[in-house]
Amino acid sequence: MHAQSIHTDAHHAELFCSPAERTLTLRRSSPLLLVSAVACALAALAAQPAQAADDTQQSPFLSADRATPGTLPEIIATDRQKTDSGFTVETASVGPLGSRKLQDLPYSVNVIDSSIIRNQHAANLYELLKYMPSTQMEARGGMEIGRPQSRGMEGDVVSNNRMDDLNISGTTAYPMEMLERVEVINGLSGALYGPANPAGSFNFTQKRPTDTPLRELTFGYRNRSAFKVHADLGDRIGPSGAIGYRVSLMKEKGTGYVKHSDLDRQLGAIALDFHLTPATVVELNGSRYDYDKYGYPTSFDYETDNQLPGAPSARKVGFGQPYSGVELRTTTGSVRVKHQFSEDWKLEAGYGRQIADRYMRTVDHSLLDSAGNYSSAIRSTMPGRFTVNSNLLRLNGKLTAAGIRHDVFVSTTGYDWKIYSTTRGQRYQLGNASLSSPALYPEPAGVSSRVGSRYYGSNYRVQSFSVGDTLTFGPQWSAMLVASRANFKTNSYNRSGTRTSGHDENGFSGAASISYKPQENLTTYLGWADTLQDGGVAGQDTANEGQTLDPIRSKQYELGARYQLAGMSLSATLFDLKRPFAFAGTDNVYRVQGLQHNRGLELYAQGDVGDDWSLLGGVTFLNARLKDSPNASTSGKRMVGVPKVQASLLAEYRMPQVSGLTLGGSLRYVGRRQINTQNTASSKGYYTLDLSARYETRLMGKQTTWRLGINNVTDQKYWASFFPGSVNGRVAAGSAFLGDPREFIASVTMAF
Fold first, then answer.
1. Fewer CB atoms inside 10 A, N or C side of the chain?
2. Residues of the domain holding 374
3. Is the pTM for the entire model greater than 0.85?
4. Is the pLDDT reported for residue 483 higher than 70?
5. Count of structural domains, the chain
C-alpha cells in the first residue's frame, strides 16, 4: 500500500475487531468477563462423561490425507497431545494451496510451532522472529510493535499479515499465548494472497479445540517482578462430541526490566468448532487483547549526518518516563465454514473483522550529536484506530487427466482497511540529557489527558481473484502455475470529511515454478513470481498533487533445494528480488524512480537429530541496494537497517542421564547495518545468547513442566532496529530502538 500513508500514520492506532462489533473504550476494565463466563460453562459441560470413541463425530479437515475410500478421516488433535519435545515440522499452510508437505513446496518457508513458543517463553512476534535468519522487525512503538519483514524488504501494514489466512494489521502486539504456530513465506507471494509488498507473508494460526480434555494452568515470572497466569482449556462436548472449544485466559502484570516501568497484558480468547455433518464444520474465533506498557525506552531520532553512538543499556532509568507508554486495545473475530464434497474436493469460506485502538503518550528523544546528547519531549493525542474487514472463498480439488495429476484451486480474497487518523495533539518539552546519563522528568500538567480528535482519514479496498494448478508428471517432476487479478480502490479524506483523492485500478500477477526430485528426500525447484501493489497517489506540495500512479510491479527469481534427512529438514535458497519506488525527486514530481534490488542466499535447518538433539537455525547473506535513484548520494547504496549477514541457531538437548530434563540455547548474530540512505554512518553488528532449561515430571499426580530461561545472557547492548525516515532514496532522518537487556524468565505448567 502507500508508503507515505503508512509513515504518516506510524504513531497512530493499528489493531482489530470482533464479529459483533462494539465501541471500544480505553478504560482499564477487564475484557475477560464474558470469555470467562463462557469458559466456566464449557468446563462444566466438559465434566460430563465422555462419549464412546466410536460415537465421536469426525471431521474430514486437517487430516484429509489419512482418509481411505468410503471412510471419513479421523480428527487430529491440533495442540499438545504429545510432549513438548522436538522441532520437526512436516507441513505448512500456504494460502489457497492449503496444507502441503514442506518437502514439496517451491517456496522458502519457516514454521515455528507451539512447543517452541511455550518453551522459549515467547510473548510477542519479535521474540520468535529471532529464530528465522531472513526476518526482521521494523519497530514502531517498540520492538514488539512494528512491521515484520523478510529478505530486507519493508512490509505493508495489512497486505503482508494474516491470521488463519485472513488479513490483519501487522503493526500491533499479538499475544503468542493464543497461537498454535507462526508460518512465514519469505519473499514474494502476492499471486497466492493478493497484492502485497515483497516482504514475505506472515500467517498466525490460532489454537483450535482439542479432541481430548486439555486443562493447563501456567504461572510465570519475568524481569523484575512481572507475574503471569495463563489458563488453557480445550475439549469436545455435546452429542457425539460434535462441538469443540478452546479457551485461553491470560493476565500478566508487574514491573519490567526498567525500574518504574509497568507491564500489563490481558488476553481472553475462545475458539469453537461446530461439526454440523461429517463433512461440514463451522469455526468461530474471538479474542480481546489489552496491552499496556509504560516506562520502557522509546525511539531515538537521529539526523542523517550524525554517526549513531554506541548503544547504552536499555535498563537505564530515564530513556522512558513512568507516565509515557502505549495502550493497545485489540478485539478480533472470525467465522469460517469448511465443507468436504469428497476426498478430493473441498470448499472454504471465511470472514474476519478487526478493530484496533492505540493511545500513545510518546517520549521522543532527538539525538543532538554523535556524543549521545539528546533532547526529550512528550506528546499526547486521542487514540487512533484501524479497522480491517477481510474475506476469503476458495475451492480446492484434485483430478487426473492424461496421466497428469492436477491439484487445482480457485480463490478470492481481500480486505477493507479503514484508517481513523488523529490530530497531533499536544507536545511538551521535557529537557536535555545524554545516553550516559538519562534523566527522569516530572509529568507535565495535562499530558495524561487524551487531547486532539480522531477523523476518518483513508480507506483501502483490495480484492483479488486467483486460479492455480500444481501439475505432477510423475515421481520426479512437477510444476506450479498461478494467475491472479486484483482490484485496488483507495480514498483519502481531510479532517472535515471531504474526499481529497482516490483511485480505482486493476492489475494482474503471476507465479510459476518447476520442481525436480532426483531422489525421494531431495527436492530442487526454480521459481518466478510477479506481484502488484498500489503505486500510490502524489501527496501534498508535489508538482502533480493528487495524481494516481499505476500499480507497481515487484519480481522475484528463486532457486532452491530442500533435503530431508531422517527428522531434519535442510534447505538452501538463492533469490533475486526487485521492487520499484515512487517518490518526488529534484523536480518535485511524484513518480516511479529508483529500484530496490535484493539478492541473497538463505541456508536453513530444522528438526531432530536422533532422540536427544533438536536444532533450528540458519544464516542469510543479503545484498540489499537502492538502484537507479536520481539522487546521486543514495544510488547504489545499501538499504537502511538491513544487515549483510544474519544468523541464528536454537538447540535443545534432552539429557538421557536425567529423565525429563532438557537444556537449550539460542545464539543470534546480526551484522553491521547502515543507518542512513547515503551510507555515511552505520551501526556495528551484535550477537545475543539465550539459555534455557526444562524439566518434566509429575507433581501431586499431575503432569508438570518447569521452565527457566535467561535471555541475553551476556547483557549485550545493541541497537535492535532502525525505522528509516525514507526507504526510497530520499535523504531523511531515522529512528533507532534499543535491544532488550538480560532477562530472567521462569514458569511452571500443570495439567489437571
1. C
2. 3-49+56-269+276-442+450-751
3. yes
4. yes
5. 1
